[in-house]
């Protein structure tokens, strides 16, 4: 009879324990959790703040009792595994309620300790109104604290998934929320062009957004930033990031990887073959960069846990590595991303190009048809799809899941172009935005025409480049680039003489489709130096949102009807 | 200068014409449409009846004027192409307004005539209150007619996409609607187990649903069915199916395929290389059955049109055939399907198996979390994915689009199991329903355990087979199979002696997950003849919906909380 110990519950640990039971009815399985809850919905924690989840009890998915009766698994809560004795195959456990320390032996040990919030030694970091969010107890403390009548202003430090979700939920609960992010943008998985939509969404919903500035110190009623700026805050939430919890593994002499996570082989065994490790604490292989990476995501944790359990029982695993897919709702926007963004592709020294397409998420005359912003990254010259980002009020996660499937299967732009997706006017268009992106990508890959990205527009405008705006007059009049020439597509053929042939010409419309037609017309008429502005006017305005090249923020919002 | 004529507008014709223009600014392009509208949203027509689309003008997407100004394409409406003279490369056109007949020459001819509603010679079929739905004029006539005060009861004949959408929209407009389908089920792309959910949805929303009965004759105020049943109806909509419009092609001596569609080669050329054909009128290659098929879908039409235009200009096409993906909203349910269903797999003589999984569409504690019914068909013994069907209040189209991507790329259960989809509690679960289906499928493929399908349950019950219901007592008491033994999963280990070892035992719970655990436990305890009921109690009840094995329809709805 095998004795299997599991360190840590939640996604990784609980899945591993349950899978072991399915494979072996006779195994003795003990799961240790240092907190009071062995299984809770990690990713749902922020939603308790915004009252989307009505009670903290609902966050708890399984109790030790249900593990016992359903799976014959002993789940011991408030018990911290403090040491591994690899030679004698035992662990030392501290009962946090009684402080008693005892030992358990194992045949196999599965580590799923997760990751801890990063808490740098800021001045004031230990004040009682400073919080992190890792488990039900954390969120409960924060929830109780912010619901005191005198807590109105809250600062959230860190613009990653947790920071953004916490900020949103506190805002929905009626708080005045400041979100502070050290780098120039929130939500690092999105590129700087796409992320401006999210910056706008945060601002539009009353979040005080500060990017490019870091926390310096915390006082009783305020935070001070590196810039010297003071922000009033009766509560501070630190959501700066997480680091793998490797103390136990390190002390036991298990190998640690180059990124600071526990190193595992293809079967999720650590350097000690009797000890497996899964979840946020480990390093995994990235199938696109071919390098180690870390992912703090529930989906991969669950798959790793199952694979580890399978391997314990002699079943082969099929470890192809990860691509990194994630999604988040930010107020009215659905946001999803998979694979590499531009930054990651650059870092990995992969030759790539990208397209930015804005297309209706469903047939325009259906209720709630909205533009979906979609960015596709592909390898040059193969056209292999590397990543995608989607943001909109509609079904962004669908589009990204489709791209995730294609990336996993090694799909190319040609595959995506031909992809036969379901179509109903309620759900999409006959040629879905992902198909359109593939068509545009193929045009770029085969140099059928040239594009510039919205991030280059400001410089070009300042250098006096020639921009042709092919929208209709009334669209042009409601707001446009400085010095742009307005020649509606419908008049282009007859007014072609107004366009200079001796210098580069940059064409845009609202979303990039009419300008693409204009570019093709001009090419056929012998123009050799014509560029389409990828993302077009919608993209330009979003990109320039904070910097006001042509107009003020309020004016952009009003004129261009972003809402 | 090339002269390109296009017969038929809408998806196929208009796309081909526009693509030709992008490739060739100088070509002369004329598009002929016999109706008054050259470009309209075909798939949105039924939504005008339900006032989802508020005006018929909105259904029209592009006018002849906009084709002229934007694309320099001449779109001639109310002009019917009545003959092709292949030797002299001309067509004869009849101006339906003036009855004048004239000729146009072509270098290339593109046929996109679409498909016509099937109208068998029923008695009364030509009465003025009998309608078909093919274009804006049709839907306008129907809309005007049913909005007369004396039209309250409407019969829709045919339970395919159009029939169902028309029935739904008329019902939403307050009409008493009877939907008549000749075969035993509506919506043929769904298998008989899955489709019961749709039958229920139609009934729950007040549609008078009649399946397994056909139209015999139409009188002024009623229809009569083959069974002799009379149904009062002041209007009748025929949505029996469509047949390819091949008159022109046939008369011109172009080759017609075995299924009655225009035969084309890989480049969408007909047997005359100067004549291309695209859209609903042609036969296409099915990449899973490797046989010709017909598809009346906008997505493939648009791709074919582009490919044809590309080929005219010397670009290679990449014709991998079709898999057939479609989706439809039916009242509160989103429904989508891709690839082969069981019927199609059988017809194609492909060895397959299937799994039926019911899982939450998002994390259970999030608002609007609902069960998603998901069926996956895979090849035996390779595990290659052949098709899928999804129905639920949540994001069914997402799951099917992911499967469509996998099918296109030749993906297997193993690929689907590992598929790294985006996860946020708002959109899905850490292990999405599609991943779960792959895990169950692999278990079945590798004979890790055995399953029976819900369609077999009735016979087994009647033969006195042993059913163990492992739901909790209170679930069991609110409704259960006749003679089922209730042993909750949590009591299974201690009550295992109550289970017979000398005969087959069939285990079910609510959705199939607890019963899977029970099956594994029993297997480990030496039981060799244990089956999991795929789809479990939810599936059984839905399947038995019309036949009332254990209880009446009302009781099922009340007890089992299907709503």
From TrEMBL, chains A, B:
Transmembrane segments annotated in the record for this chain: none
Highest taxon of the lineage: Bacteria
Keyword terms: FAD, Flavoprotein, Oxidoreductase, Redox-active center, Transferase
A molecular-function term among this protein's GO annotations: oxidoreductase activity
Limits of the Rhodanese domain: 461-542
CDD domains membership: RHOD
InterPro entries hit by this protein: FAD-bd_OxRdtase, FAD/NAD-bd_sf, FAD/NAD-binding_dom, FAD/NAD-linked_Rdtase_dimer_sf, Pyr_nucl-diS_OxRdtase_dimer, Rhodanese-like_dom, Rhodanese-like_dom_sf
Protein's UniProt keywords contain Transferase: yes
SMART domains in the cross-refs: RHOD
Cofactor annotation: FAD
Family affiliation: Belongs to the class-III pyridine nucleotide-disulfide oxidoreductase family.
Official protein name in the record: NADPH-dependent 2,4-dienoyl-CoA reductase/sulfur reductase-like enzyme/rhodanese-related sulfurtransferase
Source organism of the structure: Ureibacillus thermosphaericus
Lineage, top ranks: Bacteria, Bacillati, Bacillota, Bacilli, Bacillales
């Amino acid at each position: 009879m095998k004795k299997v110990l599991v360190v840590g519950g939640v996604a990784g640990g609980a899945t591993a324990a349950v899978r072991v039971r399915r494979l072996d009815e006779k195994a003795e399985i003990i799961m240790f959790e240092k907190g009071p809850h062995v299984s809770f919905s990690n990713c749902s924690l922020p939603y308790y703040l915004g009252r989307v989840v009505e009670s903290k009890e609902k966050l708890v998915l399984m109790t030790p009792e249900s593990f016992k009766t359903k799976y014959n698994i002993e789940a011991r809560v408030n018990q911290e595994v403090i040491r591994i004795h690899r030679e004698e195959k035992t662990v030392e456990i501290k009962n946090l309620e009684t402080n008693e320390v005892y030992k358990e032996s194992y045949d196999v040990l599965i580590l799923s300790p997760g990751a801890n919030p990063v808490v740098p030694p800021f001045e004031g970091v230990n004040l009682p109104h400073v919080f992190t969010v890792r488990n039900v107890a954390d969120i409960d403390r924060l929830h109780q604290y912010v619901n005191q009548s005198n807590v109105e202003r809250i600062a959230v430090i860190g613009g990653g998934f947790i920071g953004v979700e916490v900020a949103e939920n506190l805002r929905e609960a009626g708080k005045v929320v400041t979100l502070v992010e050290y780098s120039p943008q929130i939500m690092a998985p999105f590129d700087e062009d796409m992320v401006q939509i999210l910056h706008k969404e945060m601002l539009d919903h009353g979040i005080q957004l500060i990017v490019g500035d870091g926390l310096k110190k915390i006082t009783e009623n305020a935070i001070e930033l590196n810039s010297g700026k003071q922000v009033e805050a009766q509560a501070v939430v630190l959501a700066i990031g997480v680091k793998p919890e490797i103390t136990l593994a390190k002390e036991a002499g298990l190998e640690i990887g180059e990124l600071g996570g526990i190193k595992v082989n293809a079967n999720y065994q650590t350097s000690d073959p009797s000890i497996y490790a899964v979840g946020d604490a480990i390093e995994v292989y990235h199938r696109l960069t071919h390098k180690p990476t870390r992912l703090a995501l529930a989906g991969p944790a669950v798959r790793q846990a199952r694979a580890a359990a399978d391997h314990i029982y002699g079943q082969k695993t099929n470890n192809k590595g990860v691509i990194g897919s994630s999604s988040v709702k930010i107020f009215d926007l659905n946001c999803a991303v998979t694979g590499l963004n531009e930054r990651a592709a650059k870092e990995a020294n992969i030759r790539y190009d990208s397209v930015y397409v804005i297309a209706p998420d469903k047939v325009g005359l259906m209720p709630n048809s909205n533009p979906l912003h979609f960015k596709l990254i592909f390898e040059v010259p193969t056209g292999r799809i590397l990543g995608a980002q989607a943001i909109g009020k509609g079904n962004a996660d669908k589009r990204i899941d489709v791209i995730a499937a294609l990336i996993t299967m090694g799909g190319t732009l040609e595959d995506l172009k031909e992809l036969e997706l379901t179509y109903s006017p309620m759900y999409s268009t006959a040629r879905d935005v992902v198909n359109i992106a593939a068509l545009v990508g193929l045009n770029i890959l085969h140099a059928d025409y040239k594009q510039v990205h919205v991030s280059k527009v400001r410089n070009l405008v300042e250098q006096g480049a020639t921009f042709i705006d092919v929208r209709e007059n009334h669209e042009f009049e409601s707001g446009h680039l400085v010095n742009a020439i307005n020649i509606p597509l419908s008049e282009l053929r007859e007014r072609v003489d107004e366009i200079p042939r001796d210098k580069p010409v940059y064409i845009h419309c609202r979303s990039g489709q009419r300008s693409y037609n204009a570019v093709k017309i001009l090419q056929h008429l012998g123009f050799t130096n014509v560029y389409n502005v990828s993302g077009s006017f919608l993209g330009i305005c979003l990109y320039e949102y904070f910097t006001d090249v042509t107009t003020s923020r309020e004016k952009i919002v009003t004129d261009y009807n972003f809402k």
